[in-house]
Design a protein that fits this description.
Elements lengths: L17 H21 L6 H8 L3 H5 L5 H24 L6 H17 L2 H10 L7 H21 L5 H23 L5 H29 L4
Helix pairs in contact: 1-2, 4-5, 4-7, 5-8, 5-9, 7-8, 8-9
Length: 218
């Protein structure tokens, strides 16, 4: 791919009938098998089509290139996790710090589910990371964390809340990926998630206390 060129990862068309929906599902199922078997560097549309038992031309009706397929797989994984995090972090019936602890646990468990597949999918990320669609997904995650921090640190300044959101989002993502690569048992993953959640809660409590102390009296 030429330097600086952003890949086209939008689907060419959406399936309109049951038959075409089944075809797209078959392509994506085949793509998962090829990705796990061959790895990101040997992933090609020809291999996906052969595994799905269809022609490359049929595949190209819906996906313009391999980047589009890989991004679709990533987006599906990301959407499932994001929907869970959104329900937790925006729950008005739970205290902000309790929400955060639950969110960390769900995220760590999600990262560790099908870890081998997620690992090779992460290897493929540079192929589509600069595309506008990929950047939009990343921004949605950051926006969710910023909205949550507004609830958790109402007394803090906008700059302080932005810094807290970036720190928690970055650390949670990095540690979650590291844990998923270690092949830990479920109990160990939950224990690490609880420890990280407690660390975040201590950090937010301290930031909140400083913000309240800095408010003008009266």
């Amino acid at each position: 791919m030429a330097r600086g060129r952003k890949p086209v990862i939008s689907p060419r068309k959406a399936p309109q009938q049951r038959r075409s929906s089944r075809l797209v599902a078959d392509i994506l199922e085949a793509a998962v098998r090829v990705l796990v078997r061959e790895g990101a560097h040997r992933f090609t549309t020809a291999r996906v089509a052969a595994t799905a038992g269809i022609s490359v031309g049929s595949l190209y009706q819906y996906f313009p290139n391999k980047e589009a397929i890989l991004f679709r797989l990533q987006a599906q994984e990301w959407r499932g996790t994001m929907d869970q995090l959104q329900r937790i972090l925006t729950d008005p019936g739970a205290a902000p710090l309790a929400r955060l602890q639950s969110a960390v646990q769900v995220f760590f468990r999600s990262e560790c589910d099908e870890a081998a597949f997620r690992s090779v999918l992460e290897e493929a990320a540079p192929l589509y990371r600069e595309a506008p669609e990929s950047r939009a997904h990343a921004e949605e995650g950051r926006a969710l964390m910023r909205r949550f921090i507004q609830d958790a640190l109402p007394e803090a300044s906008a700059r302080e809340r932005a810094a807290a959101a970036d720190l928690i989002g970055t650390v949670m993502s990095a540690v979650g990926k590291a844990v998923s690569s270690q092949g830990r048992a479920g109990g160990e993953v939950d224990a690490l998630a609880a420890a990280v959640g407690e660390m975040f809660c201590s950090y937010l409590s301290a930031r909140g206390a400083r913000a309240r102390a800095a408010r003008p009296a009266g």
